[in-house]
Every structure is written in C-alpha cells, then in structure tokens.
Design a protein that fits this description.
Structural class: alpha+beta
Number of helices: 35
Number of strands: 40
C-alpha cells in the first residue's frame, strides 16, 4: 500500500458547520477540525509513474500528512471495507488510461480534531476514541468505515480467497433447513414460496438447492420484481373479483390504445411522437475503432419512451446512494427499451415525514400528546431532514454526470397522528420515504420491438464489474422497513457510477444509430444494429436480468460464472451472481456481430464480457470453473413460471373521521403557515443543484421568468435541435400529479385528484387533444391490513375501470411499492416501545404527451400590465378543505375532501385551456394544487413582482383561499376578456369560471372581502410572503451549501432594485460576425469534438 497526502477535503464553511454540529450534538469541546484527503494506492509508484500520479491528484510531493498533537484526535474515514467506492472506480480507470497499471486507487479522509479542555481541565474524549454519537458526525456507516490508524486502511486491499458455494440440505433436514436459510440470507421468501421450493427440489428435481439458486429465486420472484399483489386474485367482502389490479390498469390501454406503440412488455413504454430532425453521428465503419463518426441531421419518426421508478428502501437506508442509483436505474430502463433508446429528460420526487429543521420549528411538528418530533425515527434509517439534504444531491449528481437534465418533480412532507386521542398510536407519514425517479427519451420506430434470440446467440454483460454491494436489494425492498436484520439492510445498499453508465449509453447510441429507419429490415436483424435484445440490470443483479433476457424469447442459457468481471476475489458465487452492482446491461448479439460490437465498446472504453450462449432447452445452467461446481442448474419454468397466484382478501370497514375545526384559524397567520409548509414552499434547493440545459433541447424547466422562480407546472423539451422547414418545433412534455394525504379520507378521491392534477399541470403545454396524454402510475401502500388493501384496491379500480377510460387516457407503464411501513422498537431505561409509521395509500401519476408547438407553452410568469385573474374551479364552488395543507398546519385531516365529480368537466377544462392558448387570450397559467388559490396567486406574483388584489366573498373564505380542488388561475389582458368569455361558453366552463382579482401597482398581495375593506383589508408585501415561502429551501441550503451564497440569494427577494435576468447585448444581434472569417476561406472549416472521461455535452 502506498499513500499520498493531499489537499483539505472540507471547505472553510463546511468545516465550521461540522464544528457546530460537534458542539450541538456531543459533549466534545471541539475548537478546530483539519481535514485532509489521502490517496491510497494498491502498489508503490516511483519515478515517472509517481510524478504522473501527483499531477493527476493535483498535489505536490512536499505535502505532508497531518500528525496529531497531544490535544488532538485523528480519525480516518474511507469506503466500507469489502466495498469499492465510486470515486475509486473512476480514479483507477483514469490511472490505467494514463498508462499506470494499477489494481485500485482509493481516497480516504483524515480528520484531525482539536479538543480543548473543559472548565475542569480534562479533555472530553478518552482513550483517543470518539463516542458513537461523535463518530456518526464523521461517517455514514452504510457506505463508509471509520478507523483510528491509517495502517488499518490496508484492509481495503485485502485479497480474500473465493468464498464457497453452499447447499441447503432440504433432502436431509426438511423444510426447517430452508426456513433457517431464509432468515440467515434475507431471502424474504413467503410461506407459499417455501412450500413451492420444497416441492420443486424434493419431489421434482430430487436434490438440494444451492444458495445461489435460492437467492436468484428470491430476487426474481420478490414482490419488487414480480408484482405479486398487483397480479393477485382478490376477494372483497367474500366476493371473488373478476380482475386483478394489473388487469384493471391494462383496461386503460384496452379502452384507449391509440398512439401507444409498446405497453407492459419492456423496460419502458413507448408512444408515438412527431416526425423531426434528430442529430447524431453514424460511424463510417462500425468495425473500425478509429473510424470517423460524422454528425448529421436525420429526418425520422421521433417516438417517445417513458418510465417512472421508485427507490424507496435504499433511499431510507443510505439517502445519497439510494437516490443516485434510483436515478441511474430509471435511466437504464430508458436506454434498454427495444433495441436501444436514448434518455432525454428526467424528473425526481420525494415524500418524507416532518423535517424538524432545528432553525425552523413548526407548530404542526409539536402538537398532540406525542409530537411527531418526539415520536422519533429508527436508528437504521435516515431522518427526513437527512434524506432531503443528501438524497437530492445523489439524484442530481448522477443526472449531471450522466448528462440528462432533471426538469420536473415534487416534494411532499407529511406526518400526522390520526388517532382520536392524539397519543401516537396511529402515526401516518413517510419514514420509509418515496423516492421517485422518472423521465422520457426517444427511440427509432423500427427499434421499438426486440428481435428474437436464437440458439447460439452470445449473451453479454455490458458495463461495470461485480462488487460486494446491493445483495438482496429486491427482497429488501419488498418487506416493511425494519423486518430484516440490520446487517442485511446494509448489504442491500448500492453505489453509483454515472460515468460507467454514460459509457454504456454511448455504446447503445452507436448501435441504434446504425439501424436506419426500415422496420422490416430491423425486424430481421439486418439493419446494422448488433443488438438483438437488451435488458437493464437492476434488482437481483444478473440473477434476475439474464433469466429475463432469455425467458422473454422462451429460451434457456448456458453461462460461465467466472466470465463475469469482478473486482473482489473473495466474493461467493451467490454474491457474484446476485449482487446489484449498478450501471450494467445484459444483451444478446449474433455471433457474427462480435467483432463489430467489440470495436464499438473499445472506442467508448466500455467493458463487456461474453458470459455464454442462448440455448433452445429452457434450462438455466451456470458453471463455476474456479470452484469446479455448478451453482445453477434450474429449469426456467421452476424459476419464473410456476409459482402459484397470490390470493388477497379484505373486508371493508367504516372509517368515521371528525370534521375540520375551523374556528381557531387566524387568516394572516394561516397564509404564512401555508406558504411556509414544505409541500407548498419553494423547491429551489432541489432544483439549483441540477443541470437544466444539457442536451440543448430544454424549452421549459422548473425556473420561470427573469427572477427564476421555481414554479413551472410542467417540463417541455424540443424534438430536436432544428425544426422541419416551415413547421413549428414539436416536442415532448411531462408533469406530475399526487394528493396522497387525501387517501386517508377517500382513496378514490385521492386517485382522481392525482390524475386530475397531472392533467392540470401539463395543460400549459400545447397538446392537440387530451387522449394524446399517456400516463405512468406509481402505487405505494402498506399492504397487509384490510384498510390498506381496500384503499389500494379502490384507487386502482377508480383509475383503471372508471376515470382513465372516461378521459380516453391509457396507462401503459408504472410501478408499485407495497411495503410502505417503518417498524422499530425504542428502548430506554423504562422498557421498550414498539413503534410504526404507516404511509397513506399513495398514487403518483406522471403525464407524458407529444407537444405540437413548444413555443406556445404557458407558464405562471405574469405580464406586468393591467390584467384580470380568473379562477377555473372544477368543484364549481364546493371548495372542500379536507386533507389540505391548511388542515395539516393545524395537525388536522378532516372528513370532506376535494374530488372530481365528473370526468367531462376535466375534459372541458383541458380543451378550454388549449383553445385559449392557441388563440393567445391567456397570458399566464398556473394550476391550483397544494396551498390552494392563495399559493397559486402568490407564486404567480413572485415570477414578475406584479401586485395583485384579490376580491373574494366572506362566505367560506378559508375554502376560497386554501381549498385544493382541481383547477387553475389564468391572467387575461383587458382586450382578451370578451374572447375568453366566448371560449368559456363554447367549451362549457362558464360555471367553473370566476373573476377573483385584478393587477395593481403596489408590490403586494391584497385580499378584500365585504368584511375586509378599508383599514381591515388584508395586505401583505410580496417580499414578506416570498421570504416565508422560501424559508424551507433557505434553511436546508444553508445547512448544505455555502451559507454566504445562500444568504445573498435570499436577500435579493427583498431587494427592490433587483431586476432579475435581463439580456442587454452590447452588439447587434443581427450582425453576421462570422462573415469576414468565412469569406477568407475557400471551404468551411471542419470541427472535431474530442471526448474523454466525464464529457457528456458533445452533441450540443
């Protein structure tokens, strides 16, 4: 082992924050902290190699390792022993590319803490060791190790002997052997699974299973991978139901298949897009690694693929890694669609419980006999504040490094004790968070279908090596958090490497670019694209992906375990086969395509390995030449085809809820409370960390207007870099809808609101008709109790059998996560208490649509001019408050919630907005969601600092301001009012439309009613409201980022002289500055793009 001392790790402000944490959370009197990066190499370097290494690290040879003094303690933090960090994977690759052959380059951080004496003269640390609480401030025990001696870091390079293959003695010991293995290895097999396996091995195969086969079976047949509950047969109140939940969802496609090109059978769904110009390179010789790859425009059908995933359990255990690999997994789904797709734009969403920000204590976090703060969090899980500090960085950094913009999303914080006594006995919330990762991309129409794998086709793993990480993740995600052994939770954590995934995508891009556009040629694998069939590696690792790849074509496979690239010699066969090392794909190619595929991978520096061949015999055989054993010899039917259908049943229960108590609301205070609630408040801290311009095709991101306020309703991208001659630029749009707290009152209403909100959000984009919208549905629930099962069943029925068929909308893609419960035991000197936080039934809808003119995208940005504001209220005056943010600020729920009574009203609303957009009579548009009319108007005001005066009635004033019924607010200029009223009559929305306000010159929000006039008028300065609205983002950003920069941004809110972003060119934009240079040449200059590691913007 060789070490090279480097530069400080933490910045000055990060160091001060860490010192403050020690002073607040420990008894240590820490006055100074010095941090230093130390690079640890698996072998010694000398001479020119050492000089290269110093240059690569950017350090000088005379930098010394900090040595501790008498009043100092030194702590070393590195990657968890037995794992390899993402940083090491990239650094090692760079070293080898720079002709320094080395097995591994790692980085550790040395913390030197200066501990001053207390008043009694004694140091507050003993034996040169920190307390557990102090240690946890320095490292993440899920992904890192902490030691006190730098020599202990040598464990990173320990070469262990390959672990052995285990056989479970079910023949000799019977079912108890399998039950014990189930607990020991964390298979999470159900009793039905165990019965099935006992019969398969004892009665049919007549041999003992290997641990490899059982882990593979557990992952491949987990709830996470096989969606057993959605495919179950349901019995409701004793009556067997005719359809499964999945069949209900499929009913939407059966009723409305138009425009859907692929549904339910691939990694992502595909819908028809527009004809346009795609810009990409095609190699002049795909078999020559050094051939030129000229860029050009290609006119073709640019169809749209879409996928939305969740990564809840990993994000609860290790927020950064969980969210990063969640984003990466969804991106892989898009790339592995058909015979190769191209990811384009992403979204991210989060549900967590209360944040408990120390500098922003809120009354709704303190109410009840047991406040949500006192209720606590399981030790093995991150707190909501930790999740919202680290997880967004994980998803953003992965997307940034890969090269896909995150353009859309949401964030909800919800926790509520629903027990009548408010004693903590019915705690609802998201201790097990929802981490949503989704997006869309493009695909050639002739590559939507996978081709048929044939006997002898080569089976390949593309991407990074196997590592001892993410073992059992599929099973871990299928059970309630807290059900598995803590060590198994740790083992299921994954790690990210966006650079490797980017390289894999570059290989896929080179392959699909060769295919041309002839469907018949492509279907015969004669189009030049070497990929026959493609699948991403996700939950269960290769043990799930490879069987799925061949099973889709009713084939088997004969594979060699030791052909799988692996970085850790000590891994067992089970770990090699089932680990969830990320950034991998499996694919099949014809044998004659091997040289071509090899050249493409070599050019992109992307590793791959041929594991074996496809076989006509439907048997999965995996050999292990190193241990001279056969870890897997299993019929495909036993692995994937024979488990019995799950049976689910429930009996309905009456759910009587108390009404809202509205007498104690102070209106002025409530306005600020609602705007400050995390669900309503600014999401800038989530957005500013992401690249929103990569691809060069982003038309509408989250930030709106010259003041860059994060309030956009939907994301919009262009189909390409140029429009077809004489035609507007077509594109794609997406939006999100969810209203999960309402499910505690009425699950059906919650589902209808989720669909409705996705539509009211995407309505600002220029879409031909409502049926052009396609949706993804992500279902989360804590199944296993009658009330939870009933909520899920009713919501699915409402969406699949009633609402979406009536709207003409299909749901060809989605995901479920049905173990949304966190269980733990709190122990103290008085005994132990079992605790549980159960999530509401949670439906998140993502809407996708082709856009006919991206330039006609409505936004909340106001025109600073005399104008009127109209509310379109689909409830037609009901304005119910149950489940609203207003109710949540008072720690209430209510019993009457918003709903969509008539689907035809939503259709009329959508058509009205589209017509108003097309005719140019709507100047600004913003949907009404969390926070109601008050939040919608305030956010519109923030975009341009336009004063607004609301004129409302006294009757149900709280409902008018804070009800979250479906609808929108539009700004209309005086000259367009008559045309708007005519459109309202034409599209049957006159009874939904009402004038609610006018613009005014004062930079304030003014609220008038007959009882609030004159001196009683409610008046709030815009800056006052916007600073309240920005508090959550401000506080989290101050904890995470440089507080000086955060303060500067916050201060601009009240700066009247701030003009925002204004283009003021000091030259003539129409002047052709290039003409003198081109005129002096006989031919146009040729331009080359040089790519290396970390480059993702070469197309722009």
């Amino acid at each position: 082992m060789m070490t090279i001392a480097g530069q400080p790790f933490l910045t000055d402000f990060q160091t001060q924050q860490l010192i403050s944490q020690f002073q607040q959370k420990t008894e240590l009197n820490v006055s100074q902290i010095h941090t230093q990066q130390v690079y640890v190499l698996s072998r010694d370097l000398v001479g020119n190699e050492q000089k290269k290494a110093l240059d690569l690290f950017g350090v000088h040879a005379d930098i010394q390792l900090a040595a501790p003094e008498d009043n100092q303690i030194q702590v070393i933090v590195g990657p968890r022993f037995g794992t390899i960090s993402p940083w090491a994977s990239k650094a090692t690759d760079i070293f080898n590319n720079c002709e320094i052959e080395i097995k591994r380059v790692e980085r550790v951080i040395v913390y030197t803490l200066t501990i001053d004496a207390k008043a009694d003269g004694e140091l507050s640390a003993t034996n040169n060791k920190l307390s557990k609480a102090a240690e946890q401030l320095l490292f993440d025990r899920m992904t890192q190790s902490l030691v006190y001696d730098l020599n202990d870091v040598n464990k990173l390079f320990d070469d262990e002997q390959p672990a052995s293959l285990n056989r479970i003695d079910v023949i000799g010991q019977g079912q108890s052997a399998l039950e014990n293995a189930n607990k020991e290895f964390g298979f999470a097999l159900s009793s039905e699974d165990i019965d099935y396996l006992m019969n398969a091995y004892v009665n049919e195969l007549k041999r003992n299973p290997t641990d490899v086969e059982l882990m593979m079976f557990a992952q491949a047949n987990s709830e996470h991978c096989r969606h057993k509950i959605f495919n179950a047969q349901w019995t409701v109140d004793g009556e067997v139901q005719p359809k499964s939940l999945f069949q209900m969802i499929k009913n939407t496609y059966k009723a409305n298949p138009q425009g859907i090109l692929s549904a339910y059978k691939d990694n992502a769904a595909v819908m028809a897009g527009a004809k346009g110009l795609r810009y990409y390179p095609v190699p002049t010789d795909a078999t020559d690694v050094n051939s030129a790859h000229p860029y050009d425009f290609h006119q073709e059908e640019i169809d749209i693929l879409m996928k939305v995933e969740t990564h809840n359990h990993p994000t609860a255990i290790a927020p950064y890694a969980g969210a990063a690999t969640g984003a990466g997994g969804e991106i892989r789904d898009e790339g592995a669609t058909g015979r190769g797709g191209k990811p384009k734009a992403g979204l991210t969403g989060f549900h967590v419980s209360h944040l408990h920000i120390p500098e922003l204590a809120e009354k709704w976090e303190q109410s009840g006999q047991v406040s949500t703060q006192d209720y606590g969090t399981p030790d093995r899980m991150a707190t909501s504040l930790e999740i919202m500090t680290e997880a967004p960085l994980g998803s953003a950094n992965f997307s940034n490094e890969f090269g896909r913009p995150n353009l859309c999303g949401y964030f909800r914080s919800f926790q509520l004790d629903t027990s009548a006594a408010k004693d903590g006995s019915q705690m609802r919330g998201y201790h097990k968070p929802i981490m949503l990762a989704g997006g869309y991309g493009n695909i050639k129409r002739n590559l939507i279908e996978k081709n048929t794998i044939q006997q002898g086709d080569l089976l390949i793993v593309l991407g990074g090596p196997a590592m001892q990480i993410g073992l059992g993740g599929g099973a871990a995600s299928s059970v309630d958090s807290g059900e598995l052994d803590e060590g198994l939770d740790f083992a299921s954590v994954q790690r990210d490497n966006a650079e490797m995934e980017r390289r894999c995508q570059e290989v896929i891009d080179r392959c699909w670019a060769l295919a041309g556009n002839d469907v018949d040629v492509s279907n015969n694998s004669a189009d030049g694209n070497p990929i026959v069939s493609l699948h991403d590696v996700g939950a269960g690792g290769l043990s799930n992906a490879m069987p799925e790849l061949v099973n889709d074509h009713e084939m088997g496979a004969h594979l060699n375990l030791r052909k799988i690239p692996s970085l850790e010699a000590g891994m067992s066969p089970m770990a090699i086969w089932s680990n969830e090392a990320q950034e991998r794909y499996v694919l099949a190619i014809r044998p004659e395509s091997q040289a071509q595929f090899d050249a493409i991978c070599a050019r992109e520096r992307c590793p791959y390995a041929i594991l074996g061949e496809a076989t006509e015999i439907r048997q999965l055989i995996v050999d292990d030449e190193l241990l001279d054993a056969q870890p897997v010899d299993m019929p495909m039917q036993v692995l994937l085809g024979g488990t019995p259908q799950m049976q689910r049943s429930f009996n309905r229960q009456d759910n009587e809820l108390p009404p809202l108590e509205l007498n104690d609301f102070n209106l002025a205070e409530s306005i600020k409370d609602v705007l400050r609630h995390p669900t309503v408040a600014s999401k800038s801290f989530l957005i500013s960390i992401g690249d929103r311009s990569i691809t060069g095709m982003v038309v509408r991101d989250q930030y709106v207007g010259r003041y860059q306020v994060p309030v956009a309703d939907c994301a919009v991208t262009a189909s390409g870099l140029l429009a077809l001659d004489g035609q507007p630029m077509s594109g794609e749009a997406m939006s999100v809808g969810e209203r999960t707290p309402v499910a505690l009152i009425n699950p059906k209403a919650s589902a209808r609101l989720a669909v409705g909100e996705a539509i009211t959000n995407i309505a600002g984009a220029r879409i031909t008709q409502l049926s052009d919208i396609t949706m993804s549905a992500n279902w989360m629930a804590a199944c296993g109790e009658d009330v939870e099962d009933a909520a899920l069943f009713d919501a699915v029925y409402t969406v699949g059998e009633e609402l979406c068929p009536a709207l003409g909308i299909a749901i060809p893609v989605g995901k479920d996560s049905l173990s949304m419960r966190a269980n733990w035991t709190d122990s103290n000197k008085d005994g132990s208490t079992d605790k549980s936080v159960v999530s509401p039934m949670s439906l998140v809808i993502t809407a996708f649509a082709p856009v006919i003119d991206v330039a006609k995208t409505l936004t909340p940005e106001l025109i600073n001019s005399d104008s009127a504001f109209y509310r379109i209220d689909l409830s037609k005056g009901k304005l119910r408050l149950g489940g609203s943010i207003l109710a949540q600020t008072a720690s209430q729920l209510g019993n009457e919630c918003p709903d969509l009574e008539k689907p035809s009203d939503l259709i009329d609303f959508f058509n009205f907005i589209q017509a108003g957009n097309a005719q140019g009579v709507i100047s600004a548009y913003h949907d009404i969601g969390d926070g109601g009319l008050l939040a919608t108007i305030a956010e519109m005001q923030f975009t341009s600092r336009q004063g607004i005066k609301l004129s409302l009635d006294d009757k149900n004033l709280l409902g008018q301001l804070f009800s979250e019924e479906l609808g929108a607010v539009i700004q209309v200029l005086p000259e367009n009012v008559a045309a708007l009223m005519q459109l309202a009559e034409e599209f049957n929305v006159s009874d939904m439309l009402s004038l609610v306000g006018q613009s005014c010159e004062e930079d304030s929000l003014i609220i008038q009613t007959p009882l609030h006039m004159g001196d009683d008028t409610l008046r709030f300065s815009r800056s006052e409201l916007q600073q309240e609205w920005s508090q959550v983002s401000y506080q989290i950003a101050r904890r995470r980022d440089n507080p000086a920069c955060v303060q500067q941004e916050y201060d601009l809110i009240s700066d009247a002289s701030h003009q925002g972003l204004i283009a003021a060119p000091n030259f003539d934009l129409n002047q052709k500055v290039e003409e003198p240079y081109l005129a002096s040449r006989e031919s146009k200059p040729r331009v080359a793009i040089l790519r290396e590691q970390g480059v993702n913007g070469q197309t722009e």
